[in-house]
Amino acid sequence: MGLGQRHRPQHGRRGDHRHGPHGDHQAGRPPAPQVAQARHPGALRRARSEDPGSPGALRRHDPPVAEGRGLTRPACFVRPRLDWTDVSDSTAALSQVQASAVAELLEATPLIGELGRLFAEAGEEIYLVGGSVRDALLDRLGHDLDFTTSAGPDRTEELLRSFSRTVWTVGKQFGTIGAARKSDGREWAVEVTTFRADAYSPESRKPVVAFGDNITDDLVRRDFTVNAMAIDVAGRAFVDPHGGLKDLARKVLRTPSPPQVSFSDDPLRMMRAARFAAQLGFSVEPATFNAMTSMHERISIVSAERVRDELSKLLLSDTPRPGLNLLVGSGLADVILPELPAMRLERDEHFRHKDVYEHSLTVLDQAIALEKARDYKNGRPNPDHEPDLVIRLAALLHDIGKPATRGLDGGKVTFHHHDVVGAKLARKRLRALHYPKNVVEAVSQLIEQHLRFHGYGEQSWTDSAVRRYVRDAGDQLEHLHILTRSDCTTRNRRKAEALRRAYDELEARIDELSAQEELEAIRPDLDGNQIMEILGIGPGPEVGKAYKHLLALRMDEGPLGAERATAELRAWWQDQPH
């Protein structure tokens, strides 16, 4: 149970950084990863009326499908007739579903057909491919479309320049040419890549780029079968050599090639499995999961930047918990984020405490809900809400200092100074993952300050204490509000309600004081130049000491005014050794 929510945050600036069983965790064991179980095709029916994005739908089991940034359901692409999720093993049934999908997609998105005609008239094949096909079938088609073609990069560039005035070639060495085009009132970004037939070396994380000559070889080198489907745009045919449509209906992740080969070629695909588990609610079929587990150490050859980007995409989904469980359960987290599985502390008759790992995931769940609930625009919930990486990293890592600080005092488990230790650990890990400096510092600051509120409900804070709370939080105040409220996971309703009321009171006091003072930018009543003029001194450490003295008075007593501040400064100066 969280600490509740306030509807209109008044202070602090939002950071601009922008499913499976979870069950009760057993001591010393990894959480149950989302591994697919064999199911009869007749069990594939799924109610489509449920709204997975409804407020308050956070559940421990079967999390809702995330829609994520840029993956809204546009009005221009809806499928009111086709229920492809009722797929059987019948070839005829599959063919009917595929044909319907192709017809409806091309009818709903004329730009695709236009591009198909352009390439066909030039004697080239072109296919809508990968995530674009998957997302179209999931009613999640965004503004970005991916294609693959028989045309070489130069020929592709020539054709796209006749299709759009805006063309980019930054990926040309990899066979990719991009273009932007407006159609049906929407801005589309199109990327067309020459068929690929890359070769990989076991010692390298980078492929030897090679262009192919057919769609079949191109699809087999893709990460998962649900991303290895294509639509022959000109021929209006659905290409699915690896059973991706059936896997999509079952919400299962499986590799087109043997998983050991696929993950050896590109180990980052193992992290993508975790990301898709979070973003789409998909599970991993057993053979694929077993390969992830046995090959998890191979992720170490992948660059920190690529790992960071996949981890961030996972965390920015609506339901990161299943993806994180998959990282931990497969052993990948032991390599990329070892502090996460380290929080699975043993529980025995001496060390009775909350499971820190599960607690952290619950805090993350609650932080995501509050992050959305508190994001208002023009007095209303922001329809364009963007997920906040800083608060999600802070929520996940806020207790990573506990394993290193665990102790026993009078029969009670303690984690003294885990906030300070955790901030240092987070800073080190986030730097190793090459996160930007502002993200590293913001997350570390929040972790170090996440216990500041404790004790507020036991004794009332002075105005000075409230001012210091706001000043120390700085531009992370709104993040600190969310993190502190989310850090209440007690099942004791009375205790949770008392904590919620106490934090409501604190925020109300911040509002009240802020109406009188600019709390977020508290400064002494005199600046450095005035201090030097009054004391008749030049720049030096004495000016800094005087400034800190006046700031402390300002925090304790509120605005002093220039006259009193001058008197206080002179009195302080007389007591200083000269």
Automatic annotation (TrEMBL):
Pfam families: HD, PolyA_pol, PolyA_pol_RNAbd. Its EC number is 2.7.7.72. One of its GO terms (molecular function) is metal ion binding. Residues 352-501 form the HD/PDEase domain. This is CCA tRNA nucleotidyltransferase. Keywords: ATP-binding, Coiled coil, Magnesium, Metal-binding, Nucleotide-binding, Nucleotidyltransferase, RNA repair, RNA-binding, Transferase, tRNA processing. It is an enzyme of class 2 (transferase). Its cofactor is Mg(2+). It comes from Propionibacterium australiense. Residues 1-20 have a biased composition (Basic residues).
